Amino acid sequence: YLYPVFNAGKRFCLGKPMAIHTLKLTLAYLVPRFRFEDKQGHPGTYNWSLVKKMKGGFLVTVSKK
After folding, report:
1. Those residues with Cβ within 8 angstroms of residue 45's Cβ, 6 or more apart along the chain or in another chain
2. What does pTM read for this prediction?
3. Which of 10, 30, 46, 51 is surrounded by the most beta carbons within 10 Å?
4. How far is the C-alpha of 22 from the C-alpha of 27, rounded, in Å?
5. Is 3 left (phi over 0), alpha (psi -120 to 50) or beta?
């Protein structure tokens, strides 16, 4: 119930395990190859909504390692 994006209880999202797996594979590929730096020093706060959008956006610079 803490992360409502995939809902909870008896009617949870059937695609949740595949989405989490895809996220892990994507991060495992990107993190060793690229450097991600916070451009604005974002405090990490977000707007409460279904998809939890970051307040003010989350701008990063990406450079190859």
Report:
1. 54, 55
2. 0.60
3. 46
4. 9
5. beta
Measured between its terminal Cα atoms, the distance across the chain in Å is 38
Amino acid at 43: P
Six-digit token string for 35: 């450097």
For 36-45, the pLDDT digits (tens) are 998 888 887 8
Query: pLDDT digit string (tens) for 7-60?
Result: 666 667 778 889 889 999 999 999 999 999 988 888 878 777 777 778 877 888
Provide the CB-side half-sphere exposure for 5 (13 A, CA).
10
Centre a 10 Å sphere on the Cβ of residue 17 and count the other Cβ atoms it contains.
11
